[in-house]
Amino acid sequence: MSEYNFLSFSWMLNMWVNDFLNSLDELSVCNNVYQKNVWELRTVPWYSKVVATTIGWNITFLHEYYRNSTLDYYMLAWYTSWSDMIIKRRGVWTWWTTLTTITWAASSTINAVTYIDKVFWLWNNWTTFISPFTIEWTSYSTADTDLSDMPSGKYIVRYNDLLYVLNAKIWSDNYPSRWYYCSAPVGWDISWFPTTDFIEFGQDDWEEITWWAVASWALVVFKENSMWTWNENSIQKIYDIWCENNDSIQVINWALYWYNKDWMWRWAWWTPQLISRKMQWLIDSVANASSSWIVSIKDWNEYKLYVWTHTVNWFTYNNTWLCFDSSTETFYTRTSDYPAYSTVIFTELNKKRAYFWTDSWLLLKINREEDSVALDVDKAIFYTFKTPYLSFDLPYILKRTPNLYLYSKNPNWINFSIDIDYKNEYNESRWSMNTSGIHEHNIWTTGYLFSINFYWNWQTVFNWFTIEINNEE
After folding, report:
1. Distance CA 230, CA 141 (A)
2. Per-residue pLDDT at 440
3. What domains lie within the chain, and their CATH numbers?
4. Rounded to two decimals, what is the model's pTM?
5. 3-class SS at 346?
6. Residue 423: helix, strand or coil by DSSP?
7. CA 119 from centroid of its chain's CA atoms
8. CA 141 from centre of chain
9. DSSP string of 102-162, one letter each residue
10. Which residues are CB-neighbours of 321 under 8 A, at least 6 positions away?
11. What stretches of 363-435 adopt beta strand conformation (E)?
12. C-alpha R_g of the chain
């Protein structure tokens, strides 16, 4: 008699290692479930629809605006409507109101930052730079005194209480490797001196600045094939690496996370770290498709990267968030019926939550367990995890009669199926674990390998399972 206890799944998802090399605490599929505590696989908290947001807009940008003078939070949404760009604002639990309508330039990109009680905006369509503007409270302005002599540009960022414009245009000249910075604020006012207050980043490499992030101790700048830092004293080139998609960049606990076509990276101090090796098959599938619509969000200690729909090892990941928990260094996936086009962190009732906009004209909130949400916007979530193909170090055994013992304090109709010898025939036999916390099942097989697939569509907690093998040589 041999007994194998699956008491913990602490290493979570690993779809890269050969099945014979997976450890007993790894899973080959871990979708919409994650490990919050030892001996527990829990269903991910569900999504919920935000009040008054079924509005039928093509949202291209979301931004949280905190107005310090009134201690109010607002969500700003930039959307297209035929030939116009329209900016909407909503407060906590309020309807959307229109702030302004601007003539739209095709394929425009938007950048915004909150600074000195207002929001500074830049937008361009890669060939045309549009003049900056501000939004303060409910007022839209292109003539704000803080905009006097301010350069246009592709990107805008606040770093150490100064405002920077990157990949800039001043007057009639473009400076793709340069950024400009404002003066220190005097009260609520700033000034710009573009003839003197600027910094060049490797202007002799003929590469333009493509994005930025404030992480660790520095302002990080990406160019087309390189990565740089600025700490207000010196410029340093870190590495010959780039960022494939600007919307993939997030900062979690001062560490920088991003995606660059073939890999997912993290940078905290010196050399960038490759963190996506365990997810490489899924990352490769993303790389073979278009990455132009990838978005991401910081959700507490988790980096969530939206990668659309892919099929890997016979499993289809539909509208998938690739989730990396920085506190445990583990991966899992989330899928749903809703794609994501733009994201934002927004504060309501002193709670910061991650939100994303879908193509179904919905703004959805990614809930946490303490939110106690009962429905996934009227749609059930499909939960599943699958063990790798297990040999239990006994490849010489010709015949076995395993007994499978399942334990769950809230089984709620957990289904499971078994595949023998890598045939992908999970659907040929199914069994259910209904309301009992312990379930025993005999597996009759003469195979060498088998994998167990667990799946359900209600919120529940799965604890562990044990396999006992009676064998004959």
Report:
1. 31
2. 65
3. 2-44+384-472 (2.60.120), 247-335 (no CATH)
4. 0.91
5. strand
6. coil
7. 24
8. 33
9. EEPPTT-EEEEEEETTEEEEEEE-SS-EEEEEEEETTEEES--GGGTTPPEEEEEEEETTE
10. 304, 305, 306, 307, 333, 334, 335, 340
11. 363-366, 383-386, 399-407, 414-420, 431-433
12. 26
Q: Is 280 helix (H, G, I), strand (E, B) or coil?
A: helix
For residues 406 and 418, give the distance between their C-alpha atoms in angstroms, rounded to a whole number: 14
316: left (phi over 0), alpha (psi -120 to 50) or beta: beta
Rounded to 5 degrees, what are φ and ψ at 372? 55, 50
Contact 77, 49 (CB under 8 A): no
Q: Are 332 and 13 in contact (CB under 8 A)?
A: yes
Q: How far apart are CA 179 and CA 335, in angstroms?
A: 39
Which pair of structure tokens corresponds to residue 9?
């799944």
**324's tokens:** 């990396």
Q: Which two tokens stand for residue 240?
A: 């010959």
Q: 136 Cβ partners below 8 Å, 6+ apart?
A: 117, 118, 119, 144
Cα gap 311→335, rounded to integer Å: 12
Whole-angstrom distance, CA of residue 412 vs CA of residue 473: 39
Q: What is the DSSP string of 195-237?
A: TTSEEESSGGG---EEEEEEETTEEEEEESS-EEEE-SS-EEE
Instruction: For residue 46, give the DSSP letter.
Output: P
Q: What pLDDT is attached to residue 153? A: 93
- What tens-digit pLDDT sequence spans the chain (473 residues)? 667 777 778 889 998 877 667 777 888 899 999 987 777 888 888 888 876 555 556 788 899 999 999 999 999 988 776 666 778 888 776 778 888 888 766 667 889 999 999 999 998 876 778 889 999 988 889 999 999 999 999 999 999 999 999 999 998 899 999 999 999 999 889 999 999 999 998 877 889 999 999 998 899 999 999 999 999 889 999 899 989 888 999 999 999 999 987 889 999 877 899 999 999 888 888 876 666 688 999 999 999 999 999 888 788 899 999 999 999 999 999 998 889 999 999 998 888 999 999 877 788 899 888 886 655 566 667 888 888 877 665 554 444 556 777 777 777 677 888 787 777 777 545 566 665 556 666 655 555 566 788 877 767 777 777 777 665 54
Joined together, the tokens standing for residue 355 give 């939100």
SS3 342: strand
Any long-range contacts for 271-275 (C-beta under 8 Å, 24+ apart)?
A: 271/238, 271/239, 272/227, 272/238, 272/239, 272/241, 275/324, 275/329
